[in-house]
Write a structure and sequence with these properties.
Largest sheet: 9 strands, mixed
Shape: globular
Distance between the termini: 15 Å
Number of strands: 15
Structural class: alpha/beta
Order of helices and strands: HHEEEHEHHHEHEEEHHEEEHEEHEEH
Length: 410
């Protein structure tokens, strides 16, 4: 069964035109751009009979169940938020393709034994609060009201207040979550965000495991003073100390001989951030990932020790907290096999692979069965306005998702 590729292309154009920046796509969760896109997609899903609900975190749940089935739902979907100056396809590919999947099931009158539900997760990227997958963590009960009140954006507002201002449902501890009693499985279609598929000239990746991750927040404190009058020997400079820490952090995976591990520092705040002032404080986040659980802990412990050693050497103070984490996730054999059977039937060239990026899908692990389909990212570029995916590959991925959903839901 084919999807309407022209309509899918038009939907991409319509959504990616809505951006807070002219460069790339900037669409943070809970922003006016996010709310505008939500409105467009909700109206579209309503047009072919989907029942729409929100939860407090802003997750959208759209249920297709015209026959009022009481069986467990097959979940599909992804996210619509982006990083600053992000690409067109990260997250959005899974959402818009899922809408086309349900539309084709509806238009062709396909009878199902299980309802199909589209989930559009909020705040996957962590652009507002520095913590990823807020929506999927909330919808699976991994975070609660108190956590959202402790989490703050750069403007000082708590996640709880920002979400409340958007007008989502009042917080309710008994709000429905994703659970094994009501949902059967989740399949997420996504761009790879790496270069494996592109380099191997394969159109489809069937994901076997998703890397786990830990986000550390490192706070380095020194003494603020005049840049011109303070001798180098008398300085307690947190910027200089942080630079040394960050340089060492980038070499940790190689030092520990962990080939699949990666460490990244991509967010840094300096106070008071003046060109002629020795800073008083630096706060930076460390992103640690691997597909081996034990490696993540070892790297995390190693980084904590090297930061403490550097702080002592530079006569500054350092404190480290864990902002968030997700475990290594293995996809369900039954779902992986169903995706593979569908790909073989459609004569699609595919490979089995792991995901270095963490996805909302990972938060559902241990609750329901999960699976993921990847389509190529040209040159492996993502989280960038240079991100690109051949549209023909998106079409193939969407049609594989459609075939897989029909197999599971029938």
């Amino acid at each position: 069964m084919r999807i309407d590729s022209e309509r899918l292309r038009l939907n991409f154009d319509r959504v990616t035109d809505i951006s807070a920046t002219k460069t790339g796509c900037t669409r943070f969760s809970y922003s006016k751009e996010d709310m505008k896109v939500r409105s467009i997609l909700i109206e579209e899903m309503k047009s072919f009979g989907m029942e729409i609900k929100h939860d407090f975190a802003g997750n959208i749940r759209a249920l297709y169940n015209p026959d009022h089935l009481q069986s467990k739902s097959v979940l599909i979907g992804s996210h619509i938020d982006t990083v600053m100056y992000g690409g067109k396809y990260d997250g959005l590919t899974g959402v818009l393709s899922s809408i086309e999947v349900v539309r084709q099931i509806h238009n062709n009158g396909i009878k199902l034994k299980h309802p199909v539900e589209i989930v559009i997760f909020a705040e996957e990227e962590g652009s507002n609060f520095g913590v990823t997958m807020i929506g999927s963590k909330f919808i699976t009960g991994k975070i609660d009201e108190s956590y959202l009140k402790k989490l703050h954006a750069d403007n000082g507002m708590s996640a709880y207040d920002i979400i409340s201002e958007c007008g989502f449902l009042p917080f309710d501890a008994d709000q429905p979550r994703i659970d094994s009693e009501h949902e059967m499985c989740m399949i997420e279609l996504h761009v790879e965000q790496g270069g494996v598929l592109d380099s191997q000239k394969k159109r489809i990746g069937i994901v076997q495991a998703i890397a786990g991750m830990v986000t550390l927040q490192v706070t380095v404190e020194g003494t603020s003073n005049h840049a011109g009058t303070t001798p180098m020997s008398m300085r307690r400079d947190p910027v200089a100390a942080s630079a040394m820490m960050i340089d060492k952090i980038s070499g940790v995976p190689e030092k520990l001989k962990m080939d699949a591990a990666v460490t990244t520092v991509g967010k840094i705040n300096v106070e008071p951030n003046g060109s002629n002032v020795i800073a008083s404080k630096v706060v930076f986040n460390v992103d640690i990932r691997d597909v081996i659980e034990e490696n993540i802990k070892e790297i995390s412990d190693f980084i904590k020790e090297l930061c403490k050693e550097t702080a002592t050497a530079k006569n500054v103070n350092v404190s480290i907290i864990k902002l968030g984490e997700s475990n290594v996730v293995h996809m369900a054999d039954r779902i992986v096999n169903t995706i593979e059977e569908s790909a073989k039937q459609m004569n699609l060239p595919y490979i089995m692979m792991n995901s270095g990026a963490v996805h909302d899908n990972a938060m559902l692990n241990g609750i329901i069965e999960t699976g993921m389909i990847f389509v190529p990212s040209i040159k492996g570029i993502s989280h960038s306005f240079y991100e690109e995916t051949e549209f023909e590959d998106i079409i193939e991925g969407a049609e594989l998702l459609l075939e897989t959903v029909i197999r599971l839901a029938k």
